[in-house]
Amino acid sequence: MKHQAIVVLLLTLGWLQPSVPSKPAQEPAKVNYSTEIFHAVVEGLYDDGVSNKTLDLILRKEEGGMYTHFVRGCPTCTYVLEAMRHYRARPPFVSFKMATDTWGPGLSKGLRERLANKEMKVRLDALHTLVSRWMDKRMDRLRLNKTERADWAHEMERRSKKGMAMLGNKQDRAQAELWGDLSCPSCEGAVAGATGN
Ligand SMILES: [Zn+2]
Q1: What is the pLDDT of residue 113?
Q2: How remote is the CA of residue 146 from the centroid of ligand 1, in Å?
Q3: Ligand 1 mean position, distance from CA 186 (Å)
Q4: Ligand 1 geometric centre to CA of 138 (Å)
Q5: Would you state the pLDDT for residue 112?
Q6: Range of 147's domain?
């Protein structure tokens, strides 16, 4: 009884901490791959300093308003496209003497020419190059370990399969006709960036 009274007194005074069960080992934070794709592309656009003129080559639309180079409903394309649209709407920086709205020097002449090519396949190849490079760079920046890299690659492959299934969906006739047997550059670029192939 006396002992109990002392414990209660110490607890009240805050000198003794009631014992709490130790926490289980922390689960690694869940990766939101959708926003990771978004960030990879925004970072890439700023790092490369892609001009609006060049970006508009990628963001071209068909007559009905469909984006030419993105697969409707694709879980990779959606976030690549949104990143580009958001970058396109960026305001200019107001803190510097030089009037500018991005960081890098712009895309190389070769890439700009490929994006302006009249052949869709050539333009898609250029977009593939960009998405692959930007994904790879994002993953490097995050200093992912081997297991995390494998998880990313696995997820990008899963998304790519979904995206390609959307392309194969003949119910979306406009899309199926436009793409023919071409494959999605954002999906395959993300896989290439994540797997290092
Ligand atoms: Zn896609």
Answers
A1: 98
A2: 25
A3: 5
A4: 18
A5: 98
A6: 30-195
> Would you tell me how many other CB atoms lie within 10 Å of the CB of residue 122?
13
In-domain check, residue 128: yes
98-147 residue pLDDT tens:
899 999 999 999 999 999 999 999 999 999 999 999 999 999 999 999 99
N-term to C-term CA, the chain: 72
The rounded Å distance from CA 140 to ligand 1 centre is: 22
Average confidence (pLDDT) over 6-10? 61
Tell me the pLDDT tens digit for each residue of 35-86: 999 999 999 999 999 999 999 999 999 999 999 999 999 999 999 999 999 9
CA of 22 to the centre of ligand 1 (A): 45
Full-model pTM: 0.85
| 144 Cα to the center of ligand 1, angstroms | 24
- Asked if residue 5 is part of any domain, the answer here is no
CA of 95 to the centre of ligand 1 (A): 37
Tell me, yes or no, whether 6 lies in a domain.
Answer: no
Question: Does residue 64 belong to any structural domain of this protein?
Answer: yes
Number of domains forming the structure of the chain: 1
